[in-house]
Amino acid sequence: MKKILIFALVSCSFLVSDLSRAAQFRNESSVQNKVSDVNKDQIVDKTKGTANKSPNTIKYNTFMKAGYAAYNKKDYKTALTNFKSALSLRPNNVYAVKAIQNTQKRLAGK
């Protein structure tokens, strides 16, 4: 009888131990899933942000990138044309104004 009682107690202790480990694993998995859900939301938000850009913003960015590419190739006339086109879309834009000033200095040989 004592052997059966001891066996039952030992079996219960293993069962309780296994259950507590399972609960701990479940809690850790739940936290990881919540983090994954947050990351998925951030990824979705980033892709939505690019889809919502206005046509003028897309054109401005295209002209600025083309201007910087031409500037880096030392094609200052093309760069100046692109920066001026960008400025026409965003009058008084500090980045376009500064890019134009820098390009004009290069064209003047300074």
Automatic annotation (TrEMBL):
The keyword Signal applies. TPR repeats lie at residues 60-93. It comes from the Bacteria. The keyword Signal applies. InterPro entries: TPR-like_helical_dom_sf, TPR_rpt. Keywords: Signal, TPR repeat. Transmembrane segments: none annotated. SUPFAM superfamilies: TPR-like. Residues 1-22 form the signal peptide. This is Uncharacterized protein. It comes from Pseudanabaena frigida. The lineage of its organism: Bacteria, Bacillati, Cyanobacteriota, Cyanophyceae, Pseudanabaenales.
